What we know:
This protein has helices at 3-6, 9-12, 20-23, 56-66, 79-90, 107-114, 132-138, 161-170, 224-233, 241-251, 254-275, 299-308, 333-344; strands at residues 73-76, 97-100, 118-121, 143-149, 174-178, 200-205, 218-221, 281-284, 291-296, 314-315, 325-329.
Amino acid sequence: MNLQNLVRKNIRRLVPYSSARKEFAGTAEIFLDANENSFGSPLSINYNRYPDPLQMEIKERIAKINNLKSSEIFIGNGSDEAIDLLFRIFCRPAKDNTLICPPTYGMYEVSAEINDVQVKRANLTKNFRLDFQAIENAVNENTKLLFVCSPNNPTGNSFQREEILNLAKNFGGIVVVDEAYIHFSSEKSLLDEINNFPNLVVLQTFSKAWGLAGLRVGLAFANEEMIALFNKVKPPYNVSQIAQEAILAALENRETVEKTVAAIISEREKLVKKLKLFSFVQMVYPTDANFVLVKMSAANSIYKFLLDEKIVVRNRNSVELCKDCLRITVGTPEENKILLEALEKL
Ligand code: PMP
């Protein structure tokens, strides 16, 4: 596969913006190159300088942890930024299309629409498995991106590595595997496959297991050539100094993440067991994520009842294959207890 053939012509010939901080790589003491405010700011911590446009310190840390090269990592303003960049790199507006496997994460479709890219759908089967025949039928020569979310939001299940890799092997476009919830999953990440499949992009995020949704930091892993395309198209300073500093500090404290993930999984199992006992619960779908999809009789009214109890869950009733389903994030033991007590009033 020749990756460049898939890239939009305007992106192939694009001369990217070259920021002052990107051009300068040596040592200096006086910075008069970026029109910053040399006098400082109203804050005691100074954020008057632009951050590292390529977030090299973080990438080196993450590369070391995952046995990768820094040049195989893109860091974005949430993984939502990586999703948007994929459309801008590969999809010609009003010509190309993307294939999604609903029910799935909503931003693939929204990002496609924003970029004027047609969305084709190969719905999951009733058991929330990938429908390979439907995928094959939907693909045409203009299908540039195929999104597979594993574990999938909102269904919670993971797909098997081999299934996803088979898609990557057979599909002529880019396969984007969204591993936002991978830390909660029994399946192994596809990170170690990025150099075996030139068309494979793996997305991860600091928003879930890492507990840093407020920072807005997401990751894309792929071969160097693919990552160079992300860097070419991204806004120059897409990750703030505060976010970069916080991520570096968090990376020094990985044991906390492991502990939290274990605690969330243990709470999830308890929650699933208790939810199954309610007479109005028809099905608690198996989950590999930090949330659970629950089919109930009268989901809409239960959703409203919970709102009255000041508890907000996600109503997925109008999403394909999720009729009568609520998606419930696993909370702290205290939060889960309050949720279950509220449901007992029904
Ligand atoms: N992918 C999936 C599957 C998600 O559920 C979410 C957030 N809900 C994201 C990506 C977005 O993550 P981020 O906060 O990194 O933009």
